Each structure stands twice: as C-alpha cells, then as structure tokens.
# Entry
Amino acid sequence: MIAVIGAAIAPGIAILSYFYLRDNLQPEPISMVIRTFIFGVLLVFPVMVLQYIMQTEWNWRSEFVADVVQSAVVEEFFKWMVVYFTAYKHVEFDEPYDGIVYAVAVSLGFATLENLFYLLINGLDIAFWRALLPVSSHALFAVWMGYYLGRAKFSGTARKEAGYLWISVGLPISLHAVYNAIFLATQHWLVLIVPFMAVLWWQGLKKVQRAHDFGSKTLTSRPH
# Structure
C-alpha cells in the first residue's frame, strides 16, 4: 500500500516542484501553491460524480464525442474554474508566470488523486506509464492554460483579457481532446502519442520562457 501511494504521488510532486522552482522572479507563497494543489485533489470527486451521471444518463451516439465531453471538457473546464476563482483574482497572482504555477498545481492535484485510484485498482505495473503519460499530460495542458491566464491578467484591456481567457480554457480542452482521440483512433497509439507528447513538452517549455520574458517586462515597467 505504501509503495502504491508513493508511486501515485511522486510524479505529481516532482513535476509541480520543477515548475514551481522555475519561478525565479517572484516565487509564489508555498502555502498558496499547496492550497491550490489540494483544491485540485478535491476537484476529483465532483468531476467523477458528473462524469458518472453523464455516462449513465446521457444517450451518446459517438464514443469519441462522449469521451471528449466527459473527459476533456469537464476536467479542463472545472480545473480552469478553480484557478480562475481561487488564484487568478488573488493578490499573490502578481506576475504572468504565476498562471502556470497555479494551473499546474490544480491539474497535478487532480492528476495525483486520479493516479492513486488507478494504481490501487490496477497495481504498480502501470505506474511508469501513468507518470509518463496521464500525469505529465495534465501538467502540460495546465502550462498552456496558465500561460494564457497570465497573459489575460496583465493584458491591459478588457477586450484582450477576455480573448486570452477564452484561449486559456479552450486550448487545454482541445489538447486534451486530441490526446484522448489518439488512444481511441488506433491500436498503434504509441506511434502518435510519442511525437504528440514531445511537441507538448517542447512548446510547453517555450511557454514557460515566454511567461518569464513577459513577466520581466511587466515588473520593470511598474512604478517603483
């Protein structure tokens, strides 16, 4: 049991630590990051209930549409809502990279408890693949979400803010939908998922650097 819990928690903590330690401008209070992570953990339960209701009560004509709505739309939208209402409006959200930190914290809280449930049911044999694919993909979808939340927060105009906010929720849903589609579309999913994840990491790390660059400009332009 201890081994299963450790294997379930370790990937999420490791990835969150990586993105948190990349915040070299004005690091967020660790208490805020932990709180946001816990919100992500708690989010699993209402999402699971909603997904169960949708799966049993809704008459889906397409497995793909059902999977996209029940997984990609529901999970990413509710994670976005948690970040928006608990972190986006908080005084500690004071530079663009903070969006990435808080979005990743919520997503990895969600992914960590989900991962624990999977490992308790299926055992440690799938722990490596769970860490490599579902857990890290949740974090990478969150990087895109957080990057555009950061751009929205410091956009300067209401119109730009609204545009970036729409992107911050729409893009993670789209990426999550593509991720799910790869597993549904073909038995040879490994051929597609490897380049897809490589591009996610590559572009995600570029978003991290851009958030830092934008944050540096934002901080230097503020009156002292």
Summary: The first helix runs from residue 2 to 21. The chain is about 85% helix and 0% strand.
